[in-house]
Write a structure and sequence with these properties.
By secondary structure, the chain is α+β, with helices and mostly antiparallel strands. The protein contains 3 helices and 7 strands.
Length: 150
């Protein structure tokens, strides 16, 4: 009686090792590319101040906050207040992609209402000629409102 139980146990132990090879762990990562890491270490950080300067002159179509107004063709001007806060930064094969919350407003003439602009932009930077160059600007959530005239 003990011999058949032992035989069955040995067969079961032998068969447990004959299963399909498990998939590699999803947490296994590639070895880092040391040359790429060294190149990135020499590149300056893209700062909020740089972004605020780089968006000057960029044109962006933005809707009114509540959807009541017309689509505004906004151009970021150098003489207007601009503030940028970096919320996300992703390194890509071609450079860096940043999500930035921006706030700005117009400097209206006395007979015009002031326009306030705020929301998220996606900015794509490329490393060209040893400097970061703003390649594309995409509106994610930027909207405008018009302030009441005084």
């Amino acid at each position: 009686m003990i011999r058949p139980i032992t035989s069955v146990a040995m067969i079961l132990v032998a068969l447990t090792g004959c299963g399909q090879v498990p998939d590699p762990s999803p947490t296994v990562t590639r070895k880092p590319d040391l040359q790429q890491i060294a190149m990135n270490a020499r590149r300056p950080e893209i700062t909020a101040e740089k972004i605020a300067g780089d968006i000057v002159g960029k044109k962006l179509a933005i809707p009114e906050l509540h959807g009541n107004g017309a689509l505004e063709q906004w151009v970021f001007d150098a003489d207007e207040f601009r503030q940028a806060n970096i919320q996300e930064n992703t390194v890509t094969s071609t450079g860096e992609t940043l999500v930035v919350f921006v706030i700005t407003r117009s400097n209206p003439k006395p007979d015009k209402a002031q326009i306030h602009v705020a929301g998220k932009l996606e900015l794509q930077y490329e490393w060209k000629a040893d400097k970061w160059v703003l390649a594309t600007v995409r509106n994610l959530t930027v909207r405008y409102t018009t302030a009441a005239r005084a």
